[in-house]
Amino acid sequence: MLPAFDAFDYIVVGAGPAGCLLANRLSANPQHRVLLLEAGGRDNYPWIHIPVGYLFCIGNPRTDWCFKTEAEPGLQGRALSYPRGKVLGGCSSINGMIYMRGQAADYDGWAAEGNPGWSWSEVLPLFKKSENHFAGASPLHGSAGEWRVERQRLSWPILDAFRSAAEQSGIPRIDDFNGGDNEGCGYFQVNQKAGVRWNAAKAFLKPIAQRPNLTVLTGVEVQRLLLDGGRATAVRAMAQGRQQDFKARREIILCAGSIGSPSILQRSGIGPVALLQRLGIGVAHALPGVGGNLQDHLQLRLIYKLDNARTLNQIAGSLWGKMGMGLRYLYDRSGPLSMAPSQLGAFARSSPEQATANLEYHVQPLSLERFGEPLHDFPAFTASVCDLRPQSRGRVEIRSVDAGQAPLIQPNYLSHPQDLQVAADAIRLTRRIVAAPALQAFSPSEYLPGAQLQSQEQLHEAAAKIGTTIFHPVGTCRMGHDAQAVVDAQLRVHGIAGLRIADASIMPRITSGNTCSPTLMIAEKAAELILATTTRSPAPEKQTASPA
Asked: Does residue 416 have an active-site annotation?
């Protein structure tokens, strides 16, 4: 049923992590009529909520946009699957559930580039505001928020051995990656509650479902923004099989993510002039940076065969093992079905010249040739390592004005020489860790990329062969004040009144870690900025209900 109001105060486009939080905060004032639009469906698919169910959500058109990149020259011409959540909760419904803020230096760097209000000391309270940390309130953590953070509910001897090997290799043990300096090795903390995925829809929407001033619509795909005199006043969308315009009296906030937000802008005639003219789209406002500055973490998945080890490969490879996993999860929500995709993490420096840790490891007690294929029939673990601060930059461009056509996504992985150097150094560091005494009881042998690859050129080729996305695209509507910036430090789109962006696309530089919780922080910041503006502006006139 479509809403009966002729206009809303705020329209939030996209019900991913940012959109869910923002809808919650803006609708807390009963005077604000808030509309949240989501192109996907409800989050009622059972595999969303069982942690290991990400295997059945990624690549599933019910929950994933199923995007693909262009053929990547830096990856031997391979085109990668590029998962993005298409469901309430967005990527928080299909991701790895890892709670990670990044490093203090990330945010201090944003502020130093001319974005006041975004330093570590200023964003830390925003992280804490939404957090519900298992250890309670502290100078670093919050306990009164909605975003549940817990310890994982299982451990593995092979992962414990990797942690000891990392320590023997100079990477210290660490219990908390979220204090501003995440260098070290330890088990990830996760966004779960009692062994069940805790997505943004559960955290921020379900508790306020009865607010009469909040309307949440699913299955509504925004085609474009409507402008009037340089102001964004409405969104045009396909809803229930027909075109519908939704009007905003105060602001429209795009939370459609690093692929969706630039695509909506470009379809609205806001973006690079050459692209818009090539597609026959009228130029409403020239913003050359829309869709540029795409950054992502490329993971190199090194696989090691083992002796004397029990991994998920063997457990999931038998009927009895699968039955045992299911019974254990039914009994106490633990065991392999409660697993985040990666359990053990490590942050390290690829070389002594790095000021802070520039590598992140996701270590898994399993292996497979590529995502979506069966596990190997031999015991093994995967040490996936990514460059946290890539220098390569890509782009997102719509192919036509048709919202149903997937955009061009070109990350340009390993196109910068520095990224190739870091990749080679990362492989060498991984080999040093695996050669440490703590792992030798398991007799690890390198399955991929292969121990025979040793020269710099061979390691570059290996990175191109095994590299794949770890699903952290950011930066395509960059915050800043130069000619390529799309939003200012208040998240207002340059040159368009009544329009903000609050998602990972605004990051000037990618954070040093997983990007879901930083995206929530961005939305928390946006809510404060918007509400501060509201208190300084006249109250809106009373609305008259009318059929939509």
From this structure: no
* Catalytic-role residue among 285, 376, 472, 494: 472
- Other CB atoms within a 10 A radius of the CB of residue 24 amount to 24
Task: Please work out, in degrees rounded to the nearest 5, the angle formed at the alpha carbon of residue 9 by the alpha carbons of 7 and 11.
Answer: 85
Interatomic CA distance for residues 37 and 198, integer angstroms: 21
Close Cβ partners of 1 (under 8 Å, ≥ 6 residues apart): none
Structure tokens at 248: 């905003």
- CA 422, chain centre distance (Å): 22
* Contacting residues for 530 by C-beta, under 8 A, at least 6 apart: 10, 26, 251, 253, 500
Contacts of 373 (CB under 8 A, 6+ apart): none
Distances from the Cα of 215 to the Cαs of 33, 42, 529, in angstroms? 8, 14, 22
d(CA 516, CA 522): 10
Tell me the backbone φ, ψ of residue 347, rounded to 5 degrees.
Answer: -120, 130
Q: Which residue has the tokens 């070109």?
A: 410
Which residue, among 104, 93, 112, 80, has the nearest Cα to 38 in the 3D structure?
Answer: 93
On the CB side of 112, CA atoms within 13 Å amount to 8
Helix, coil or strand: residue 318: coil
> Which class in CATH covers the domain with range 8-536?
alpha beta
Look at residue 34 in the predicted model and tell me its pLDDT: 98
3-class DSSP state of 170:
coil
Residue type, 39: A
Give dist(CA 148, CA 155) in Å, integer: 20
What pLDDT, in 10s, does the model give residues 389-446? 999 999 999 999 999 999 999 999 999 999 999 999 999 999 999 999 999 999 999 9
Beta strands in 430-518 (DSSP E): 445-448, 467-469, 499-501
Q: Is the pTM of this model over 0.90?
A: yes
**Per-residue pLDDT averaged across 471-492, rounded?**
98
Q: Give, to the nearest 10 degrees, the angle between helix 120-130 and helix 516-536.
A: 100
Q: What angle do CA 466, 468, 474 make, to 5 degrees?
A: 155
CB 120 within 8 A of CB 529: no
Average confidence (pLDDT) over 164-172: 98
Residue 202: predicted pLDDT:
98
The tokens describing 284, both together, are 């409403």
Contacts of 278 (CB under 8 A, 6+ apart): none
152: nearest Cα among 298, 339, 301, 307: 339
**Which tens digit of pLDDT belongs to each residue from 46-98?**
999 999 999 899 999 999 999 999 999 999 999 999 999 999 999 999 999 99
The token pair that represents 27 in the structure block: 């609708």
pLDDT band at 154 (very low <50, low <70, confident <90, very high): confident
